[in-house]
What does this fold into?
Amino acid sequence: MHRGEAELIKSTIRDRGRHRVIDKISVVLDVKRDMHTASFSNLGLKHVPIDDRTVKANEKLLTGGVWCMVDVEYSAGDVSEDPWIISALRPIQLGQFDSARYVAARQEFSTDEWIDLLVSTIGFDPNKLSPRAKLLQLVRLVPFVERNYNLVELGPKGTGKSHVYSEFSPHGTLISGGEVTAAKLFVNNASGGIGLVGYWDVVAFDEFAGQKRVDKTLVDIMKNYMANKSFSRGTQTQTAEASMVFIGNTSRPVPTMLAHSDLFEALPESYHDAAYLDRIHHYLPGWEVEIIRRELFTNGYGFVVDYLAEALRHLRGLDFSDRYAADFTLSEQISQRDRDGVRKTFSGLMKLLHPGGSATPDEVEALLRFAIEGRKRVKDQILRIDSTMDAVTFGYTDAAGTWHDVATREELDYPRLYHRGEEGDADEEDSGGGLRRRFPTAQACPPAVPQSSLRTARTSRNSSPGSSTFLTIRSGTRTRRSCFRIS
It folds into this structure.
């Protein structure tokens, strides 16, 4: 029913004595009356008695509300009694979720079949998407299944960035980036009321890249929340579990961004900050996502969206972040924040594709590589913004002890632009003038030089035997950069 028709519907119920409505029903325990009472979101009825057995059979009525078909009766009597009576209630949304049944049903599908089912549920024809394109779509669901997960997606218009967060789950909310305030998002100091992070599993910021004015206080509070899951306003410190998603449009193609700035260039200046960006767990490359076209839509079967939304919410309570550890080891060079980003993305993807927690080594490796790639994209761009941060090597070691490098797709497609400033730009200027000289690329490095012989060189602590590195060498007052392969 429409909220504007509330009085008409109430009058109809009074005239007929009984009428069926569809509305969102939420229930609370009235301690003073020692009974459960219901509120109708659109009809506007409040404190309507509801049978305890109905509440017990539909526990989600107590956790935010459920859309239901409700038979409402009107009984005029004593003015002290409530004339409204709920004679029957049937949830349209899922009233209860059977996790064991969901996990057992997953075992009836191959991994590829399960991925196709999830992609169809989102609304796309899996036969029209590549395996990587399917995974890019599914990463958008990770914030729904992983607590306190921070995701950014920047890319061209028309790829459906906001659709998942506005329509897919009743546990997520999409707000315009320009409408965000500290009071709305965290705590209103005047009223003491908790903000959006206390009520939603996912808070997504639409048109985030288009903001003109940014509240510096909000940025500082958000930094602390994204890192520590807590926020302070006034004298109290509070915690929340909402994941953060930042989506926005880019205005230039990837090669141009790599040649002249970085892949975060579309963000407002206050967010274009290394300390803030280091809290991002995964950068979803929106330029790789298919522009939505009619032929991409599915006409096949998928989950009822409300059912899958409840499944994802249940899985938020599980932790699969260490399920790769039996077969793979992350690089010891990465920071704790890098490690957290990789582990949380991996955990989310595991819960989406393998809710039972078990997968083959090949399946685990594919998800681990994708998780590492997304965090590497974040870190590599941060290094362009803040040159004081140390570069690290992203990769992993398998059970046989073999090292595997991980590169981003744009790093493979545009290697010289991606490593601009690292290889082939110029030597450092010397102290006496502006002399700049081209130096060899990594592929043109000279034969291996023993690390012990480079006593005058300042090199990254991450250099390892067999790797190529650019070293800053000082001789008197002159400074230059040269490329060596470490033995």
About this structure: Residues 100-317 form a domain with the Rossmann fold fold (CATH 3.40.50).
